[in-house]
Amino acid sequence: MPQSIGFIGLGIMGQPMALNLVKAGHRVTAFNRTRSKAEPLERAGARMASSPAEAARGADIVMTIVSDSAAVEEVVLGKGGVLETIRSGAVLIDSSTISPTLSRKIACHVAGRGARMLDAPVTGSKHGAEKGELTFMIGGEREVLDRVLPILQVLGKKHIYCGANGAGLSAKLAQNAIQATMVEVFCEGLVLAAKAGVQPQTMFEIIQSSMARASLTDFKAPFIFKGDFTPYFPLKLMHKDLELAMEAAYAQNVTMPAAAAVKEVYGAAKAQGKGDMDYAAVVTFLEEIAGVQVRTSAAAQATH
Ligand code: NAP
User: Fold this and answer.
1) Which residues, 6 or more positions from 132, have their beta carbon under 8 angstroms from its beta carbon?
2) Active site residues
3) Is 12 helix (H, G, I), strand (E, B) or coil?
4) Atom 1 in ligand 1: residue holding the nearest Cα
5) Max CA-CA distance within the chain?
6) Is 125 touching ligand 1 by the criterion CB < 6 Å?
7) Which of 4, 49, 74, 210 is most buried, taking the most CB atoms under 10 A from its CB?
8) What span, in angstroms and rounded, lies between the C-alpha atoms of 46 and 233?
C-alpha cells in the first residue's frame, strides 16, 4: 500500500534510496539542506519541502540519512526539525551512522510525541543503495520494525534485528571498525610490497589466492590501482565512525587497539585534505610516507 514518506538527506546514500521509494509508488516529500541536489528526485516525482518539519508533516514514515550526530540532532530536534511536526503513530527511521547514545535520546523525544523511532543504519554503499540491496541493522521495538518492513524491503535485501534502540548502531559501528581496519591494513601491505619492487597487481593476485581474500578489498583494489578515489564512502565519514566506535568502546570498557591506531591514520589523511575522497584514499597517505605508489605498473617508481 502506498505510504506517505518524509525523506531527509539526499547525499550519496539518500538520493538513490529516496528515488527507489518514489519508483515503488510511495508519496515522498523530501528535504535536502542544499536544495540543488534535490532536482533529480523532484523530476522523478517527489515533492520538495523547505524544512525537515515540512517533510515530516502528516507522514506515516519519516526517514533521515544525514552525515553525523550533529546533523541528525539538527534535522530532528533543531528549529524546523522533524520533532515539531511528526504525528502520533508515525515512525522515524534514522539510517545515518551516529552515536547510539544520541539515537536513544532522540527516540525518547520522538516517543514523547506519540511516535516511534528505529535506528536503522545500513551497509552496502552507493551501489547497494542504487540497486535497493542494502543491509539494514535495526534497533527499536520489533513490532515497529514489522510495521515498516515493507518500506525497508524496497531499499534493502536484508533486515537484521539487533535489539532495543541503539543496538542497530552499535552493530554498525563494530562493522565499520572492521571494514576501516581491513582496507587500511590492505593498503599497508600493498605499499610494503610496492616499496620492495613487487608489482601491485602481483601482490593483489597473491592476496586473492590466499585466506586474506575479501570481497571488500576485491572491490576497492581496482580503484586504488587507478588512483580513482571518487567517494563511495567519504574518508571523513569513515573517520567519524571510528571516533564513534572508540566512544562506544570507552563507554563499555572494551579495548580496540588496532582500530584506535587505524583511526589516527584516517584522521591524518583527513587533516591532509583527503576527507571528501573515498576512504580507500588512505593509501595515498601511506604512499606519501613510503615514497612509493601502488598504482598499476607504478611499483617500479619506488624511491629507495
Ligand atoms: P553525504 O553524501 O556526505 O551526504 C550527507 C547528507 O547529510 C547530505 O544530504 C547533507 O546535506 C546532509 N547534511 C549534513 N549536515 C547536515 C545538517 N547539519 N543539516 C541538514 N543536512 C545535513 O553522505 P552519505 O554517504 O550519503 O552518508 C550519509 C550517512 O550514511 C552517514 O551517516 C554515513 O556514515 C552513512 N553511510 C554511508 C555509506 C556510504 O557508503 N556512503 C554507507 C553506509 C552508511 P547537503 O547536501 O546540504 O550537504
Assistant:
1) 20, 154, 155, 156, 157
2) 172
3) coil
4) 11
5) 66
6) yes
7) 49
8) 25
Domains and CATH numbers, the chain: 4-164 (3.40.50.720), 170-302 (1.10.1040.10)
In angstroms, the CA 72 to CA 79 distance is 12
**Is any atom of ligand 1 closer than 6 Å to the C-beta of 71?**
yes
Of 75, 114, 79, residue with least CA distance to 94: 75
Cell matching residue 2 = 502506498
* 182, three cell numbers: 581491513
Type of residue found at 152 = L
The answer to whether the CB of 96 is under 6 A from ligand 1 is yes
48: left (phi > 0), else alpha (psi -120 to 50), else beta?
A: beta
Chain position carrying cell 591514520:
265
Q: What is the mean pLDDT of residues 18-29?
A: 98
User: Could you report the per-residue pLDDT of 129-176, keeping only the tens digit for each?
Assistant: 999 999 999 999 999 999 999 999 999 999 999 999 999 999 999 999
Distance CA 287, CA 283 (A): 6
Which alpha helices (H) appear in the chain, and where do they start and end?
14-23, 39-43, 52-56, 69-77, 100-112, 125-131, 142-155, 167-195, 200-208, 215-226, 235-251, 257-269, 282-290
The protein residue with its alpha carbon nearest to ligand 1, atom 11, reads 33
* Integer Cα distance of 290 and 227 in angstroms: 16
What is this structure's pTM? 0.94
